[in-house]
Amino acid sequence: MESNSVIPRMQVTSYSRKPAPRMLAESSWPLLLGLICIPLALLGCSYPLGEWSVLGQAYTLERGVPPSMVFLFHEFKPVWHFLLLSTFVASSALLVAGIGLTIRRRWAPTLCVLFAVAKIPIVLCSLAVGYLFRCQTAPLIDAPLRGGPVLLGLHITVLGAAILVAWKWALPVFLLVWFSREEVGDEVEAWD
Prior knowledge:
Elements: H1 29-58, H2 67-102, H3 108-141, H4 148-179, H5 182-189
Helix pairs in contact: 1-2, 2-3, 3-4
């Protein structure tokens, strides 16, 4: 017996598989920059601590120093303490930012920029105060020498200040430029 029955055919639906999104390799700059920021921040935090210990010992060393020098030291002391405290706070912020960069936290670049914005005027104020202190103490220190060495000392101070500005502004300027880049901002938006 022949039957004219139609065998239903199964419809095969073809699924077009979307290719899995390619995992973009994570860029390495956050880890690298964080590992640069952390030791520099630790150095920045240790500097004020060392200076405070020296300033504490300076009170005991006043016996052999001329009275005018002791007066200048006490006159500049509050400014030095303020600059050391602001350096410590800025360096602490950089330390936290460096740790945040290594673990890719969205707030870390903002903290880096805040550090940079704070560090630039701190360096300028430190240099200005240091230069004023040097100008006022140079005649007291170099009084027996008179003339050339005093002028040479001030010129060396200016040259040292220029080198110091270049060195101490390197990281803050780099951070400001780096985090102003659009590609970096887009990547940071994807962080936690």
